[in-house]
């Protein structure tokens, strides 16, 4: 019936063979994919059969699904999903594959068939059908989508929509207005479901006189008072309605002097030292004819507020610190070498590139200047005025760093948030412009706040037990700048928030009732973003607070951190401890056997004493004593003492990830130990008849993310999912374009991927 000889086919096809590689869409079951929307969020455009690139060298792990653009985010809804990564925090406003539009820095479309690529801006046309979309994000992520199986028109439309909505033309087009208007305000002015955004917060917002009164009493600033002349923002548009001034300055004098200062920004009190010295910030005097007179009057008032009538020291920040353009340029270079160029930390080229970015140099410069101000307050007992042209950028950084170094109160979580609220938000830092939420003026964009967080992290890294919060908290706080629904990072000053929210409410017919403006939630209400369980990642198991005590041999003792005699923090073996802190100690030399240094020891000591400045001696004396974590903290400032903030800058880099390694392993063990101690203390209280949490509810009320087991003497093993990027994952968040099938190290060695418009205009694929 069937011939044993197989017949030769005679049909000849002139079509190319079908592509059967992994790029072809797999046969997926029909599944309805819908984006999860927040109140006020709408879908603008979408494309089906889109592939999100996951792996760097292979596409077999890529995800297929729908790409959606809303008025808030770029959302990818996957048909299939990656294995559940249990360590990832669940964000209540964003999904696993969501990117806030405010976080999108560049939208690059590519057609790899025609060899074309283009950076898309708002209201631009796209003359080719894109086969690939690359999103460069401000949080250092690079996200890639492929349109191999998507319709060309839908792919083009969704790319144009993302480019358009990531460049809002007006602040009121930012999603936060729609979100707050829909979630918190009803049509008749009542609060929706009785919700009060930010209600019940322990963080002081410094938007009322009572918060300032409490701060005056806490610091003992009896010669200072709360001033209310700017209520309604009648004096200065960028100052808060309430601020603190010397008692000896009358309101009428302040109104008279206001016109002499840049933007009518009257000098602001920041903080008082226990000696009575005050930290004050001030903008430049714009009227040269009145400069001498006004400066003398302000200085005299500050001198009178000091119990010893000490002189006033003026610190010109514009002359001693890098400007906002320098800081922005440094971040762009840092981003290039951290996530785009080849990551080889051990290579000399990578380290020299890091140095040439000047980011670490600027971090060190700000810390060093803060130490100089601390010296004037702590050792010289004189008041300090921080001078800056606008008093809205550099002074925010220095004033906060000085208070963190001097005042242990500021190192608790809620007090640190109050510090940012006081010195950044209410003082009028231009978050809207510096974050460039509107993409209007790149010259105004500058990561001043991120630089401040890096400086704080350097302090935290040297004294982790002195801070209640963790580096995860600092990283999440930096990311929150790109979720534009919080009042904290959305405006340039309190007056701008009030004006825009009133205008928006009027245009949308929202009756505010007793409220003067829309009630934007502050970022400090972390329940808006994370569950209580995930918020425990902010709690530092090492923190030694004022009330932290221990009982030893029947005696109550407070925890103190004492420096051991041997210090191995330097990479140079045998380096004297004082030299590691920036100067030589009286008995320290770099002596070698048969060296002339042994014979010249006394001569060098005399030279050192002659050349050492009082501030250097102050720093040397500090490091010669045991460190009190509830007292003054000074950073070690040699380059070898400062590190790259890896959890922020390198968390998406697969090559930098250390499975089962990094600081998280110590964090896990310390958290378990702290939780076990808390559990045992609770059991002891119950045994003694005091009130305590039942054992079955201990895990629910624990402050630690990682918890001890209920079985004594059995410490839980570190989870397998721990890595140095915890709680973040580089999977799918750093897909550099054009590396498929190419050895990563060779290609990235000369890659230039974070492209400028000029570069793209001259290059093709």
Automatic annotation (TrEMBL):
GO terms classed as biological process: phosphatidylinositol dephosphorylation
InterPro entries per UniProt: MTMR10_PTP (IPR030573), MTMR12-like_C (IPR022587), Myotubularin (IPR030564), Myotubularin-like_Pase_dom (IPR010569)
Protein name: Myotubularin related protein 10
Sequence positions that bind substrate: 323-324
Domain of life, source organism: Eukaryota
Domain Myotubularin phosphatase: 206-649
One protein family per Pfam: Myotub-related
UniProt xrefs under CDD domains: PTP-MTMR10
GO CC, alphabetical: cytoplasm; membrane
């Amino acid at each position: 019936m069937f011939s044993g000889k197989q017949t030769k086919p005679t049909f000849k096809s002139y079509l190319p063979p079908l592509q059967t590689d992994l790029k072809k869409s797999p046969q997926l079951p029909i599944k309805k994919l819908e984006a999860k929307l927040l109140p006020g969020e709408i879908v603008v455009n979408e494309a089906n059969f889109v592939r999100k690139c996951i792996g760097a060298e292979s596409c077999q792990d890529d995800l297929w699904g729908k790409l959606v653009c809303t008025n808030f985010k770029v959302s990818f809804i996957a048909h299939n999903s990656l294995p559940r990564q249990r360590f990832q925090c669940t964000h209540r406003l964003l999904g696993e594959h969501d990117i806030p539009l405010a976080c999108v820095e560049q939208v690059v479309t590519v057609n790899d068939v025609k060899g074309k690529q283009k950076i898309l801006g708002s209201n631009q046309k796209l003359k080719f059908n894109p086969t690939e979309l690359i999103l460069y994000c401000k949080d250092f992520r690079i996200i890639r989508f492929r349109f191999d199986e998507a319709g060309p028109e839908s792919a083009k439309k969704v790319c144009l929509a993302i480019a358009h909505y990531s460049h809002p033309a007006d602040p009121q087009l930012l999603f936060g207005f729609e979100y707050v208007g829909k979630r918190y305000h009803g049509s008749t002015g009542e609060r929706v479901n009785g919700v009060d955004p930010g209600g019940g917060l322990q963080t002081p917002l410094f938007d009322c006189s009572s918060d300032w009164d409490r701060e005056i009493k806490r610091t003992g600033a009896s010669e200072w008072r709360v001033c209310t002349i700017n209520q309604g923002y009648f004096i200065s548009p960028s100052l808060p309605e309430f601020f603190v001034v010397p008692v000896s300055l009358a309101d009428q004098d302040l109104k008279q002097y206001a016109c002499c200062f840049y933007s009518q920004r009257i000098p602001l009190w920041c903080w008082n030292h226990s000696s009575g010295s005050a930290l004050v910030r001030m903008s430049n005097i714009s009227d040269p004819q009145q400069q001498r007179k006004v400066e003398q009057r302000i200085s005299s008032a500050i001198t009178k507020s000091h119990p010893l009538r000490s002189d006033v020291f003026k610190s010109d920040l514009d002359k001693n610190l890098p400007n906002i353009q320098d800081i922005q340029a440094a971040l762009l270079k840092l981003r290039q070498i951290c996530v785009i160029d080849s990551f080889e930390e051990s290579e000399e080229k990578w380290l020299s590139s890091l140095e040439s970015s000047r980011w670490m140099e600027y971090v060190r410069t700000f810390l060093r200047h803060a130490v100089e101000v601390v010296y004037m307050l702590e050792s010289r007992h004189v008041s300090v005025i921080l001078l800056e042209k606008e008093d809205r950028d550099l002074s925010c950084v220095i004033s906060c760093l000085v208070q963190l170094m001097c005042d242990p109160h500021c190192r608790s979580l809620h007090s640190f948030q109050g510090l940012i609220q006081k010195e950044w938000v209410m003082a009028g830092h231009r978050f809207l412009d510096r974050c460039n939420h509107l993409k209007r003026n790149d010259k105004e964009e500058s990561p001043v706040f991120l630089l401040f967080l890096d400086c704080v992290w350097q302090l935290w890294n040297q004294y982790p037990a002195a801070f209640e919060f963790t580096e995860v908290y600092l990283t999440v706080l930096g990311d929150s700048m790109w979720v534009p629904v919080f009042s904290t990072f959305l405006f340039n000053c309190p007056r701008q928030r009030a004006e825009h929210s009133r205008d928006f409410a009027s245009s949308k017919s929202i009756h505010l009732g007793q409220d003067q403006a829309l009630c934007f939630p502050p970022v400090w209400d972390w329940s808006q973003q994370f569950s209580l369980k995930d918020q425990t990642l902010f709690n530092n198991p090492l923190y030694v607070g004022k009330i932290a005590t221990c009982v030893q041999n029947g005696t109550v003792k407070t925890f103190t951190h004492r420096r051991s005699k041997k210090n191995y923090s330097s990479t140079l073996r045998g380096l004297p401890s004082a030299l590691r802190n920036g100067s030589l100690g009286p008995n320290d030399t770099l002596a070698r056997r048969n060296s002339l240094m042994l014979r010249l020891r006394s001569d060098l000591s005399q030279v050192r004493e002659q050349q050492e400045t009082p501030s250097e001696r102050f720093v040397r004396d500090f490091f010669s004593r045991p460190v009190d974590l509830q007292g003054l903290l000074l950073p070690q400032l040699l380059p070898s003492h400062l590190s790259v903030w890896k959890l922020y800058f390198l968390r998406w880099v697969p090559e930098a990830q250390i499975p089962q390694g990094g600081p998280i392993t110590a964090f896990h063990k310390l958290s378990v130990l702290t939780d076990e101690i808390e559990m045992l203390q609770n059991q002891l209280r119950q045994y003694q008849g005091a009130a305590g949490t039942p054992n079955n509810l201990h895990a629910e009320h624990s402050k630690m993310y990682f918890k001890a087991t209920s079985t004594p003497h059995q410490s839980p093993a570190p989870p397998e999912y721990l890595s140095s990027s915890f709680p973040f994952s580089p999977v799918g968040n750093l897909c550099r374009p054009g590396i498929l099938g190419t050895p990563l190290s060779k290609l990235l060695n000369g890659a230039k991927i974070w492209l400028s418009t000029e570069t793209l205009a001259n290059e093709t694929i």
